[in-house]
Amino acid sequence: MAPVLEVSGLKTHFFTRAGTVKSVDGVSFRVDRGEVLGLVGESGSGKSVTGFSVMGLIDPPGKIVEGSIKLNGKELVGLDEEGFRKVRGREVAMIFQDPMMTLNPVLRVDTQMIEAVTAHDKVSHKAARERARDALAKVGIPSPEERLNAYPHQFSGGMRQRVAIAIALLHRPPLIICDEPTTALDVTIQSQILAEMQSLCADTGTALVWITHDLGVVAGLADRIAVMYAGRIVETGAVDPVLDSPLHPYTNGLLGSLPAEGEPGAPLRQIRGSTPSLARLPQGCAFAARCDYAQADCLASAPDVTPFPGERGVRCHHPLNLAGVAA
Amino acid sequence: MLAFVLRRLAQAFFVIAAMLVIVFFGVNVVGDPIYMLISPEMDQQQIAETARALGLDRPIWEQFLVFLKNAAQGDLGRSFVHGESAIKLILSRMPATLELAFVALVLAVVIGLPLGLYAGLKPESRLSRFIMAVSILGFSLPTFWVGLMLILTFAVSLGWLPATGRGPTVSIFGLDTSLLSLKGWQHVALPAFNLALLKISLVIRLARAGAREAALMDYVKFARAKGLSQSRIIGVHILKNIMIPIVTVLGLEFGSLVAFSVVTETIFAWPGMGRLLLEAITRLDRPVIVAYVMVVVVLFVTINLLVDLIYSALDPRVRLTEATS
Amino acid sequence: MSDAALPSAAAQPPAAPAKEETPFRRFVRSFVEDRLALFGLALFILIVLLAIAAPLIAPQNPYDLASVDVMDSRQPPGSVSGEGFTMWLGSDGVGRDLLSGILYGLRISLMVGAFSGILAASIGAAIGLIAAYAGGRTENAIMRLVDLQLSLPSVLVALILVAGLGKGVDKIIIALVMVQWAYYARTVRGSALVERRKEYVEAAQSLGLSHARTVFRHILPNCLAPVIVIVTVQTAHAISLEATLSFLGVGLPQTEPSLGVLIANGFQYMLSGSYWISVFPGFALLMTIVSINLVGDRLRDVLNPRLEK
Known about the structure:
Number of strands of chain C: 2
Strand order of the largest sheet of chain B: 1-2
Largest interface: B-C, 43 and 37 residues
Number of strands of chain B: 2
Radius of gyration of chain C: 24 Å
Oligomer: heterotrimer
Structural class of chain B: mainly alpha
Number of helices of chain C: 12
Helix content of chain B: over 70%
Structural class of chain C: mainly alpha
Shape of chain C: elongated
Shape of chain B: globular
Largest sheet of chain B: 2 strands, antiparallel
Largest sheet of chain C: 2 strands, antiparallel
Distance between the termini of chain B: 9 Å
Order of helices and strands of chain C: HHHHEEHHHHHHHH
Distance between the termini of chain C: 52 Å
């Protein structure tokens, strides 16, 4: 079966006065129908820019300079604004990080939902409103008919995110890109939303790209995982093998900095240093300066992707846990 | 909500009362209007009689008490020059001034808003820089000088538009207006544009700042992610957000338009109350000056009140805070 | 011992105003970076020099009625006067050389602007300081007055004032000062409140310095930057306002022909085509105002990036 989304060799650069920032620098991945891909990385790793590239929401000084983004087999790179507009919301939707900011504060919820319906489907105002109401009901908002007339500030943060999810689901897109949609929420609401997203997508067969810095969220949600560092995917594979026996020292470091469930009282390990400036990346491996396992060749040349069985891949000269993969 | 309105009304009353005192004494401190009103051949006794007839022979505090008593009944005195009720005189000239100010306000929005939006959404383009340069110049130019240049260009050199006066008026619902005929519009065009100039610059700045800010907001990006067209995003999502400060500021500026119309009306011989004020000042017609100021202050206070109410209608968040407090 | 902590804590505050090497030079350098502002400054200096030197360079003394010939009235630019000199900008309605009139008019306009600016700044700053320093009811009353005044358009306030005061240079200056003091009072009070809370003022007071000394040596110098910015902007505004009032015939009398008076005199001839009588003085006025505003804009950027509007 053809994948919903196939990104290959994507490069999105920002041409600022301080120099060219290579936010996304050769990223390839694919998402199958109904699959959940966890796109994991620290802030500044390029994971959000990847998401916005797929949506065609890269504004100057940013630009997709290379690569291809195929959505349901259709090439998106090079589409004009109107072409992208027709895709957005219908074939791929997006949910943002901060629900307090994503809804327009001066427009009523019904306005913002109905316009989303009529942007793609020429239906009557009444029909659009009914669809909006049904969508609100589906994401678990009580008395949706009345809530349609409310303004965003009359909703709590979690409820606003549900409204955003309802908007994303209006056209039942085959793919939704979720840019850390639970980060800004309380922990209890976080898990509610997570569970709800999972069941909604399972019902409709919607694929998700779940962008997050939190491996814990991905562990319970994603089918596959792609770890990004400094604009590149450094490790990819099915979620369990990657988390059980990470190949890349960076993935390993991320896992180490999670509070371990089994060992109460064990000290958290940190990855030393911080992410390099994307305007001035080193010649060798971008992670070498922070890596505990770095050797001379890591500083000399950037590693290519080494494929492993089970559709795993890693961008490292000296992968870890090789025994686990061979087994 | 009721408490809010009552509090604002009390404030308004205080401001009006304060202005009443300040203006009455301010105008009466210097200059004796009696010498402006008498003819040279009058003798001392005739002068004294005229003064008595106008109440000018009494001590100032007594004049003030009489003035207050009359003011409470809506009578701000009789014009020394015209012999009519000052307030009636002002009110009879008010429609012309309000018409001028209203057209200027509309011009400010119609011209300023698109230019400001453009400059805000495309800040790097050359046209935007040009727009901003012109708007800075607009703040520097003295209104009266621009008025002269407008007359020189469009009336004297090109002969396209009349330089002075107001077009024929028609009365509808008791309000005189000259805006129902082409001739009326030809007459109002230059003075209204002149009056609007400062406000156009202001609207450009406000719209630009608002659009720049709004364009970076997540809700605009989310609106794009929904697949909305550019025109819908700018025309609804961005515009509705920037209209809030613009309506507020413009509402408050309407009073200043009325005040500045003194200059514009004089240049373009527009028969409004601003020109009446200037005549009154040069002829020391105190009651008319006082009446003008009181009318304008009441106008100001009313506008401020209205703007607050409109503001809360435009911005749903304000309504919430009012409801919860 | 706990005593040991006290002296060191007390020693810290006076270190707050760290001495920079040459703040003035740094200021000049960043001012000069903007070409447009530099142009404005050069233009302004030129205008001031022209105004000062008017009696030396003007072809004619417009006050000297003997040198004015009615036969020369309303001559277009470039005509030769009865006395034989070329009237480069033409002549006005009574035969005065317009260039001379403008040079002398600049003197009056600039003088009125400068005087009212300095007076308004001094009086307004003093009132603002008093408000900030006195606090309580005094402050409240002053600020209420400031708010009331600033809510009214300056043209209107000035008109009402001249209605009471009458014509004349002194009266116009009084009116302009009364229109403008509130801007300074509000700004100085704001800065002074901020400065007052800073540690060095508390330190100065704990050292037993008198109130006056604290205000003039410590608070006032730190309020200076915004005041300088407002002085430039408000001086331009004062010149414009004076011209407006004079144009309306309620400002300066014919015996004190400022630029506004000249423009007003030319207005009646404009419709019949003698445009230059109004246009050239207007152009001089415009150059003056724009040059000051260019300087003021840059000063605002350099002196206080946070100061808005």
